[in-house]
Known about the structure:
Blueprint: H1 14-19, H2 32-43, E1 47-51, E2 57-60, H3 63-68, H4 72-75, H5 80-83, E3 84-87, E4 102-110, E5 116-127, E6 134-143, H6 145-167, E7 171-175, E8 181-184, H7 186-192, H8 196-199, E9 208-210, E10 229-234, E11 240-251, E12 257-266, H9 268-282, H10 292-309, E13 312-320, H11 323-330, H12 332-348, E14 355-360, E15 363-371, H13 375-389, E16 392-394, E17 397-399, E18 403-410, H14 417-433, E19 439-441, H15 444-463, E20 469-478, E21 483-495, E22 499-501, H16 503-513, H17 516-538, E23 543-547, H18 550-555, H19 557-571, E24 578-583, H20 584-587, H21 591-604, E25 607-613, H22 620-623, E26 630-633, H23 635-638, H24 645-660, E27 664-668, H25 673-681, E28 686-688, H26 698-708
Parallel strand pairs: 18-19, 21-23, 23-24, 24-25, 25-26, 26-27, 27-28
Antiparallel strand pairs: 1-2, 1-6, 3-4, 4-5, 5-6, 7-8, 7-12, 9-10, 10-11, 11-12, 13-15, 13-18, 14-15, 16-17, 20-21, 21-22
Helix pairs in contact: 11-12, 14-15, 17-19, 17-26, 19-21
Amino acid sequence: xxxxxxxxxxxxxxxxxxxxxxxxxxxxxxxxxxxxxxxxxxxxxxxxxxxxxxxxxxxxxxxxxxxxxxxxxxxxxxxxxxxxxxxxxxxxxxxxxxxxxxxxxxxxxxxxxxxxxxxxxxxxxxxxxxxxxxxxxxxxxxxxxxxxxxxxxxxxxxxxxxxxxxxxxxxxxxxxxxxxxxxxxxxxxxxxxxxxxxxxxxxxxxxxxxxxxxxxxxxxxxxxxxxxxxxxxxxxxxxxxxxxxxxxxxxxxxxxxxxxxxxxxxxxxxxxxxxxxxxxxxxxxxxxxxxxxxxxxxxxxxxxxxxxxxxxxxxxxxxxxxxxxxxxxxxxxxxxxxxxxxxxxxxxxxxxxxxxxxxxxxxxxxxxxxxxxxxxxxxxxxxxxxxxxxxxxxxxxxxxxxxxxxxxxxxxxxxxxxxxxxxxxxxxxxxxxxxxxxxxxxxxxxxxxxxxxxxxxxxxxxxxxxxxxxxxxxxxxxxxxxxxxxxxxxxxxxxxxxxxxxxxxxxxxxxxxxxxxxxxxxxxxxxxxxxxxxxxxxxxxxxxxxxxxxxxxxxxxxxxxxxxxxxxxxxxxxxxxxxxxxxxxxxxxxxxxxxxxxxxxxxxxxxxxxxxxxxxxxxxxxxxxxxxxxxxxxxxxxxxxxxxxxxxxxxxxxxxxxxxxxxxxxxxxxxxxxxxxxxxxxxxxxxxxxxxxxxxxxxxxxxxxxxxxxxxxxx
Length: 715
């Protein structure tokens, strides 16, 4: 067939152009051959193309519009290599050889929307039928984009499956219906230590030990899937792995099994984790001793056995004395280490059949089952006291501790576990009240004391909401001139029925049950509010000193900073008029953190005072690093200062050292003229105590200031 020639600039359909093409009849009607070509080009899904001798397109069938979105005339005159690129099967650029026919060569071309479409091009060389001269190429282009996308998707799917089979963290294999291994995943080989040659063709049962059915390890799955079976995998080194075997059958059209697919899941780590969870559910994470749940279970079993065998069971509650102070001084890590060491001492003090448990905090439980007499309890209690009395070396510090022990007996003191534990707890608190470092058996009068303790704790929780807490203020005076400098805020509890309750009773209770933070916030806000009111009334720049509890300082450092800042802003008290008193032991508990905290308060303008100096473990080398303005000599050095030369010498040394560090010194607890005169001779800067005034309520303090110091001067 001769090449079809398109008129230059023609915009008509290709059929109209072809009517004028070479080979048409003289009357303008296309020849039979041309009509046949037109019909074929319209019906086939391929688009047809022809080039001239220079390989420029002279004809493109109209099908190209559906495939590429171009009108055939838009492509006329362009070469195939100018509109697309020939590619190898792996989609690398291909240099075409135009001196011979070609078939199904991959050709990529962009459509009118910029999308790449892939085609298979086939072409033959065309020669003039009369002269035999080369006229160009004629061929077809089949759009295979969807086919290639489908093949690519299938290839990726197969790759994903192969990767999943080989690389997933499960052990997969396929076997014949008889159980011979056909293929295994890489992970299967890796986990068991074999090579593929070691296992292909071998019975799968050679590499596993199937365990008998167990409701915990076998369950039904899909109807066409065998049950999940617990088994042990045998490694090449003969060690085993715990696992679960999932098996599914592949059937042919007749329903016959042609292959077995198995997934073998290594659950060794899971079993270890489950065992670890079970251990953690029953044992204390820090000491690895039985926890409360396990201890109560064992106690219940012991009571059942004691009831049946007509024997006794004893419980001991062992509590470390002053543990919070140790935590505050040496830090939480040292406190944890101490708990571990005490637990070890308790284990060493009892029989193998006895139970040592940690109930929480610094409290331990000792269960002594199957007793015939109480003498064994006394022996164990004495042994525990003796072992714990030896100093512990913790983080380079020699720590001396004592414990208090309470003992309850079944069936004498209680008929069930909970009551028996409460009896031991009451006895333990009696040991605390009697000076600590001792043990007590439960008795009815102890129970009454425990109930009083519980009642006081419940009443304390209502004290703030019921406005039962009040502040009293003790004057701070400059000796010699009797000049009033400031005051210290001291909390008092005025109970409506129990009367005034001493801070020595309720402050330790608040520290134990965590209420001290709430009470401390109330003290700070109330003290600042009332200080502002008294300063305005007296027209004086008095300072107000407020104690910060160890728990409040060490456990809530960022919150304490915010509390102080917010309180000063809310009340309008100038920062320099607030002095925070912090005990020596607390300061030394975590020196880097405390230094940051104290410096932040100092930058805020708040004054800082070190309280109870001389009772702790502070080093003078550290003391100079903290931004303190005042040092308070503990009352234990003041009490006998006019009678005891050693107390006088210590007080003299403390005052001299403080002045060398540019600190003011307050002598607290001054009750007599003799104490005042000695401190004055030692150049003590300020005095606080009953010699000048007891702590007074707000109105009493104002009356004291007006009466005794009518002209209050600015400090």
